[in-house]
Each structure stands twice: as C-alpha cells, then as structure tokens.
Design goal:
With about 425 residues, the chain is an alpha/beta fold. About 30% of the residues lie in helices and about 20% in strands. It is built from 13 helices and 16 strands. Strand 15 and strand 16 form a beta hairpin.
Length: about 425
C-alpha cells in the first residue's frame, strides 16, 4: 500500500511579515508588500521595485556566528523551519534522527553572499584577477547550495536523507514532491521540506533587466505587480521562505496531529521549447495538471481553488490561462484562481513553497486570497482571477502550479484526506 503523506507543520518568512500569521493577514487583506528597493541603490537599473522582507536575524534567534556563516536565504530557511517544527507538535529530540530528512528547494542559492564576495575580492569589479584573501571565510558554503539543506538539518536534528532541489522557479514545488517520495518509499518517516531564496541583489536585477522580464512600473511600487491585468509590465522580484513538516497520514492521526492537507498528487513536465519562452497553448502545464489529478484520483470538478503561478508577464499569464482550460475543461471557468505574487512578488525558487503555504491557509480558513492590482482584465485571461478582495469559499482541494525558465512546469494537488479514498 502507498503511504499517504500529509503536512502537519508550517513556517513562513515573507515580505510583509515574519511568520505564518502575518503572512496570512497580508494575503487575506489584499495588501501588497512591494516597494522601492532599499537593500541597495537601485538607480542604475530598469526595474527599481521589489518585495523585501523586513528581517532582523538576531530578533529571530540567530546568533552572530550563524549570521556570518549563513547567506540571507539560508537564514530565512532556518527561521521558517523552526516555526514549522514547533507548529507540527512533534518532539524532534525524541525521534530517531536517521528517520528525519530534509529536502530544500532554492533557485538562486547564496546569490547575495556570492555577489558581496565578488565585489570585495574584485574591488567592486575593477580587478580582472580577484584576490582570494579578500573573500569571506565561508565562501565555499555560499558556492555550494547544499549548505542550505545542511543548515536546516543541523537546526532540526535531521540525520536522514538531505538534499537541495534546484529547478528554477518550480524548485519550491519540486522539493516538496521529492520529500513526499522519500516518505512513500520508506526512506524517511519525517521530512522537513520547502524552499528559500533571497534574489533581490544587483546581479539578479541586472540579469532580469537584460531580458526585460521585470516591471518598469516604478512610480507606484505597491501597484507594480499586476498578474492577469491588461496593464501589466512584468514581474516584481521578491524573497522569502516557506518550510513544512511532512509525515505519514496514519502516524499523524495516531498522535492527534493537526493535518493541514494531504499531498495528493504531483507531476512535472518540460516543454523542451525555449530557455525563456512558453508555448502559447499551455500544453505541457496542462499535462502536468492532468497527471497530478490522476495521481490524486480526482477529477477537475473536485478542485475548489487554483493557486496560480501568475507572474505578471504577458506570455506566462496567457500560457497559464490556456493550460487551465485544457486541463480542467469547463470547470476552469467556474473555479476561483488567484496569484499571491501580486502581493509578495516573485521570489523565484522559493515562491512555489510560499504558494503551497498560501494554499494550505486558504483551506484552513476557507478563504481565497485575491489577485491584488487586477483592475483591467486582459481579454485573453478570461477566467475567475479573484480581483482585489479575498473571497469566502469552501476550499477542500487546491491545485497549485509553478512555471520556470527552461520550460519546467509543475503541478501539485493538496486535499483534505477525507476528500479522497486510500
């Protein structure tokens, strides 16, 4: 029999608030956390807005040595993991550490620390040959993204399987799917999983400037992220982390744990089409959705809410709309859909996990968060994209999707355990 895997712990570090409660308050109120960039001088760049997290590592339990050792994104992951472990109610100290694993997603790794290290070693880019003596002492950890998983494993006492999943903007979904597989196959009993990224750096901003993917709506930062709106001009960078505790369903029930949802189905596909472009028909995302529904043994009509990728680029929003129509059929027109990137920006590899967190909280409260700044619909995006204001809606099963450069498309179905048979 396949082991059924459920989520029993949740931790979030997000723009607009640190912790799950602040994260949900932001989303459910329809407020945006996008603003003019303060982490560095954005004046040389085309896009000057982002969704930054107001994060003080010392106030959230990190020591001075940990702050020096860890990249900002790794700090996010550790703080979110500690919240998730507490939320799960599990006594990790009393568990077999070899049966606890970590699967952490990241798209950019320690890009902030690498950016700073290169600036120091190259005299801010003036030197062709860098001087290694000017590099920070923990540069190796910043070069190797696996250090993120190691930090989380140390923080929670996990000595089982430990890995980093880096598949670009689908990393935050794919890492959770990998954790599910490890529990199903019996390699672990408990998995700490999710994703973290802190890509608001000069290097990343310049890279997206070059391909004109980020917004130029700099005059009103809080209105700059406009998924599915006819006036959208690209996405807004964000940062943050979401981490979950996963375990087998019967174990959770036996200990009386609070179960957020079962990870009922997952699939990933690639278009093999273009590094940054998308097929207009959405076929590969539709295929991922269909396979995820099949694994969950659910029909399109069983989905109560779709948490969209909704980046705010024209090709993505239209591609995604086409995919929902292909995969869900007529039900696509009657299902609420929304993009939380309108409020917290696009944190690249970590946003898939943050969207899973939003989906769990939508199920918890039976409230669909809105798509902020959606005031003028793109005629080609003609589904129910829940504009501006959250909506009370019975939500027992959610489809959440991710789309990434290189053509990666991932879909996950989250459902209350009693919504599907064993």
């Amino acid at each position: 029999m396949v082991r059924r895997v459920v989520i029993t712990g949740l931790g979030v570090l997000s723009p607009g608030g640190i912790g799950t409660r602040d994260f949900w308050n932001l989303l459910s109120s329809g407020r945006t956390a996008t603003r003019g960039i303060t982490l560095f001088d954005p004046s040389p760049f085309r896009s000057k807005v982002a969704a930054e997290a107001d994060f003080d590592p010392g106030l959230h339990g990190l020591t001075a040595q940990e702050v020096q050792r860890m990249d900002r994104a790794a700090q996010f992951a550790v703080v979110a993991a500690r919240e998730a472990v507490t939320d799960s109610g599990l006594d990790f100290a009393g568990l077999d550490p070899y049966r606890i694993g970590v699967s952490l997603g990241t798209g950019m790794g320690a890009v902030g620390s690498l950016d700073s290290a290169y600036r120091a070693a190259s005299d801010r880019g003036r030197l062709d040959a860098v001087d290694h003596k000017d590099a920070p002492p923990h540069l190796y950890d910043h070069l190797v993204p696996s250090s993120f998983a190691a930090e989380v494993a140390w923080a929670v006492g996990a000595e089982g399987p430990s890995t980093v999943v880096s598949t670009g903007c689908t990393s935050g979904i794919d890492s959770v799917a990998h954790a599910v597989d490890l529990i199903r196959e019996g390699s672990a009993d408990i998995m700490v999983t999710g994703a973290a990224d802190a890509p608001i750096t000069p290097f990343i901003l310049a890279s997206f400037d070059a391909i004109k993917a980020t917004t130029t709506l700099n005059d009103e930062p809080e209105k700059a992220s406009r998924p599915f709106d006819a006036s959208r001009k690209g996405f807004v960078l964000g940062e943050g982390a979401a981490v979950f505790v996963l375990e087998e369903l019967e174990s959770a029930r036996n200990r009386g744990a609070h179960v957020y949802a079962e990870v009922a189905g997952y699939a990933s596909r690639s278009s093999a089409f273009h590094m940054t472009g998308l097929r207009p028909d959405g076929r590969e995302m539709a295929e991922a959705i269909t396979v995820a529904l099949d694994e969950a043994r659910m029909n399109p009509g069983d989905i109560d809410y779709v948490n969209a990728h909704g980046s705010g680029t024209k090709q993505n929003d239209r591609h995604e709309t086409a995919a929902y129509k292909l995969a869900l059929g007529p039900h696509a027109y009657g299902t609420p859909v929304s993009s939380i990137k309108s409020m917290i920006g696009h944190s690249l590899g970590s946003v898939g996990s943050m969207e899973i967190a939003a989906s769990l909280l939508a199920m918890e409260h039976h409230v669909v968060p809105p798509t902020a700044n959606l005031r003028t619909r793109d005629p080609e995006c003609d589904l129910d994209y829940v504009p501006l204001v959250a909506r009370d809606h019975r939500t027992d099963a959610v489809l959440t999707v991710g789309s990434g450069f290189g053509g990666f498309q991932s879909a996950m179905v989250l459902a209350r355990p009693d919504r599907r048979t064993a």
